[in-house]
Known about the structure:
This protein is mainly alpha-helical.
Amino acid sequence: MILRLWLLLFGVDAGPSAHFGSLWLIGGGMLTMAFGAIGMLGSQRLGYLAGYGAIVSSGTLLAAAGFGQPLLTVGLLYYLPSSTLAISALFLLADLMDRWRNDGASLAPYDHDDAPFLTAELMPVKGLNLDDDEEVLTGRVIPAAVALLGLGFMGCTLVIAGLPPLSGFVGKFAMLTALINPSGLGLSAGQPPDVAGWMLLTLLIGTGLLALIALTRAGILHFWATYDRASLQLRVLEGLPIAFLLGACVLLTLQAGPVMGYMQATADALHTPGLYVRAVMSARPIPGPQAPRAEPAQEAP
């Protein structure tokens, strides 16, 4: 909505009012990105991480829209559905993980003892194979449901942090390319980015790094350090929405060329508001079903 109305009212054809308020959009978007990244770094629950990830995504789109560059608009239009799909999948994962954590079993009986692997005479319990660190050498069995959720969480992390090979990386790379060379890679005479451009470029990379750190820490906490929990019972209807959302991200990656072409046409239409205005003004209004019909004129006797 902001992108549509701002380019319509304060586009290149607005005369002296062209790009009015762009600095406010850029500054507000950058502050939003920084706030969301700090919030992700200070959170461990998946629901909070998803919420702060949505804040980072909205700040990225707001700041990128404020530059008013067609190539940058192409990148943010591609990044918009990717981040939306990944954050939606992370919210669904957070609900399943909260249910798993609340239904988890209590600690094993020997974990309540001060010396769980020693007898009253401080001798090792028979039948236990201890290594040099006094830890039981037992393998960890990862249930299939937990493995599937872990793969889904990994996909969400790649998209939100903007890492290859999924669509989050493609969208961020397109925006970084537009910031470094607004005229396109094929033109060597493109003007270098200004201070605001370098700040946004730094924030794009920095927020991705902070998101990667926060999500990796949460993944270790929720998926790796869970040996004392009961097995998660995952129904097919609960896993299908997550698979569908992440599958859409994979499809955006595989069809990046056609999708970028569509986003290019959309950006051209957004940055040419005259075409939109003429199309609306030239359209003939269609009367509603309750509108009174005009009676045909009767000839005079």
